Here is the input.
Amino acid sequence: MNTHQPVNDLITQFEIQNELKNAFQKILLKNNAEDLDIENKDISINSENIEYSETEFGFHRFQTPILKHGKVIIGYFALVVTNENERMDEYFVINQ
Here is the structure.
């Protein structure tokens, strides 16, 4: 039995790859580099690389690395959604 299948089904059903991309782009557009604690906006995410976890409240958390120059992991971006795909939170975290 493939234990990853239910997670893959959620990623597809909730269109998580697109949601991650769109939410990440909105953050970049609405904030300057200083607000985001980064040198410049030459950063991206790899929405093909998604880690899943369930929060203590039973929500779904989807996390992807934030990359500098497309290679170096400098942090992560995550979305938290309910079973009905209602967004509860998002996280933009840069490692210090």
